Amino acid sequence: MNELLFPYLLVHQRLGIPGIGSFLLVRNIPKINWEQKIVQPPEEQISFVAETIEADHFFYKTVAQQLNISEVAAIQQFTEFAYQLRVQLQEGGALIPNIGTLLLNPDGEIVFRPMVQNNPFLQNVSFQHIQLTSTSKASSVKPVSILDNLPAAQNSMATTEEVFVENEKRDNWWIYAILLTIIGLGALLLAFL
């Protein structure tokens, strides 16, 4: 069951476990640090809310499909999993792979410690090599197109325009076909009358 929880959370941004609470996937926007000239990638954080949740029938259907079992069997397995998770929580803590650790504080409240997500694709991007100018200077500077430096792109754009013109001509073929059909029918009518 553990291997199904994190992918479901990634796709649906919410995962509820009865008797425990809900995990939420919060996506933050990228941040720009102008002083260091870097763009920090969007962050994904998993938060936890200890709340009473209703049964998620879509989750049960997903589990049933993934494990190739009936929905009733999926509900039973998930209920047993949630029970075991509560037992582990009472015994000192429960680890949910790729999501985090649940602990009980002295007051009996559930505390969540999210797992650090190390995604090598989400690294800072530097723009040190870009010259930033004020708006007054920028207005006198001629805009540069990215296509100016790509002759292959210019050729492909010209080819695209040519194809568009050819397609435009081809799209009118049916008008000529209808006119010829009407003329042919008219000639047949005149021949038999």
What descriptive keywords fit this protein?
193 residues; alpha+beta; 3-stranded antiparallel β-sheet; 9 strands
Descriptive notes:
By secondary structure, the protein is of the alpha+beta class. The protein folds into 2 domains: 2-126, no CATH class; 146-192. The protein is built from 6 helices and 9 strands. A 3-stranded antiparallel sheet has the order 1-2-5, covered by helices on one side. A 3-stranded antiparallel sheet has the order 3-4-9, with no helix packed on it. A hairpin with a 3-residue loop joins strand 1 and strand 2 (21-27). It is elongated.
Gyration radius from CA atoms, angstroms: 31 Å
Number of strands: 9
How much strand?
A: 15-25%
Distance between the termini: 82 Å
Q: What would you call the structural class?
A: alpha+beta
Largest sheet: 3 strands, antiparallel
Portion of residues in helices? 40-55%
What general outline do the C-alpha atoms trace? elongated
Helix and strand run: HEEEEEHHEEEEHHH
* Uncertain segments: 153-158
Number of domains: 2
Contiguous helical run count: 6
Overall pLDDT metric: 76
Major sheet: arrangement of strands? 1-2-5
Describe the protein's topology.
Layout: H1 2-12, E1 14-17, E2 21-27, E3 31-33, E4 38-40, E5 44-49, H2 57-67, H3 71-90, E6 94-96, E7 100-104, E8 110-114, E9 125-126, H4 135-140, H5 151-170, H6 173-192
Antiparallel strand pairs: 1-2, 2-5, 3-4, 4-9, 6-7, 7-8
Helix pairs in contact: 2-3
